[in-house]
Amino acid sequence: MDAVQKANSGHPGMPMGMADVSTILFKYFLKFNPKNPSWINRDRFVLSAGHGSMLLYSLLYLTGYKSVNLKDIKNFRQLNSICAGHPEYVKNSGIETTTGPLGQGISNAVGFALAEEILKKKLGKNIINHKTYVMAGDGCLMEGISHEAMSLAGHLKLKNLIMLFDNNSISIDGPTSLAVSDNFKKRFESYGWGYIEINGHKEKEIFTALKKVQKAKKPTVISCKTKIGYGSPNKSGKASSHGSPLGVKEVSLVRKKLGWNFRPFEIPKNVLSSWRSIGKRGKKIENKWLKIYKKNKIKINNSFKNNFKKAIKSEKKDAVKENKSLASRKSSEAIISSLFKKNNTLIGGSADLAGSNNTKTKNHKIIKPGEFGGNYIHYGVREHAMCGIMNGLALHSKLIPYGGTFLIFSDYCKPSIRLAAMMKQQVIYVMTHDSIGLGEDGPTHQPIEQLSGLRAIPNLNVFRPADKLETIECWEHALKSLKTPSVLSLTRQNLNSIRNKYTKINKCSFGAYEVSRTNKKINLTILASGSEVDLAIKTSHKLAKEKIYSKVISVPCMELFDSQTKKYKDKVLNETKFKISIEAGSSDCWRKYVGDFGITFGIDEFGKSAPYKEIFKYFGLIDKSIVRKSKKLIKR
Predict the structure, then answer these.
(1) Active-site residue, from 143, 286, 383, 559
(2) Catalytic site includes residue 383
(3) Mean pLDDT of 8-21
(4) Class of the CATH-defined domain 2-293
């Protein structure tokens, strides 16, 4: 309450309303150690209702985490304070994930709970056996992602997942009855969740419910009927306590009502000591666990070892040897199959498109309800939840999740992708059917602006490989990018090989590189990505017949190219005055490369339904059309 008031910004209502539930959870049930926030077998506490961040920061400070001190709390919502407006993931801080967009925390929690089951199967229940608690509000449960994630969690019977539902019936606009009349009990039970209703301000009821779920056989919702802004004489139970400071007068009245006779930020020694003793209890629990861990250390370390080098090298050599036309989604399938020949931390999946995304191979074993010894998840038609769950899988430990869908449906995934980038998590998105090249499914399924939208997200590598060799190299870079998520944008249609020599160097890691030239001295640079690189090479050869010489630059990843040295970028871009780009998508992101004297060959309208070669011709993405316009450019 005091932190929100000092900042003159924030949400005091939820932290005040859920303080009782949090106290019982942390005091009697939550397994954690503030001295080692990253202990792998700790219980996970996820605040999905991220607007109530001051509840989390208060708990971290009171229980003795070094990450949050009283000065940080006094600087709530101020520049560079760890106590941000909504919780932001910081490694070893006790903040498990970044939340704010409502419902994201629920999907992350499903990922945590799923990771716990996967690792329990790998390592044994003596090593991994913990709970995931997610605190969610009415808003989290209104968002569609909550339906997707909870449905899958119920299907998989994630028994160590517990939701603490802050059922205060208030949202920003007023009572939730303005927009919601769900029967929560029936809703959650239909997903396969247990459901317990309690008064969120009665210690005995809170304790009894939490005690009961320790032995649950399925995920459970504890619906905590609470009063938002509990303790506020004039704003308790009202929307006015949700997203604004209570005001100096009301803060004073709350103190009086609760009998709290202390100045702002003053915590009596006996109160702080009691909380710190709660934090210290976790050290003893971890010490017991460490004895078991030391006996199994080699097994655990081996379970987290990855050795992708051999598979990558073998696949690159095969690609050069075969030198055949192949869709990049099929090329991706080949490398995935090779990667899964040996045990590693990769966990695959797809949003009901395994056969189209080519994300599932004969070397996969399916994760099923109660059977977690596999390495592939059928997410169902749940793109948004899939990506939120993958964030949870990545955050939990050292698992590397990848999931597939069509590139057009990246729009469903975008909020979760953005958070993965913000949190610097290694998550890999296999997005196929990447252009008008998918053909007859038409404009609803043909991505146009999606590549530009994804490329606009900071700390996200968007790969668009041009052949099998490039696809392998893009996968290789994604597997090495420990702090950056990756999108692999792959074709449905076959692609010709653009390189026929094996190199140890990963050329795609430069983001852009020269693949061909028609003369030592040139007067045109042609930039292209993915399926259009082959078109660029054909265009280059046709221009050479007219004595216009050029080089072709494959641009599999703009983000990596932009991060190169000025010298390298100048070598690629500034050899010629005239530059053109070719990509079957929106052209705006190419203008920075072609400059004032260049032409972008792309598509800045929606696609068409027809066989893909006809659509390419319709939009002028054929060598004849590009040659004609390029000649005019050079002769200008």
Answers:
(1) 383
(2) yes
(3) 98
(4) alpha beta
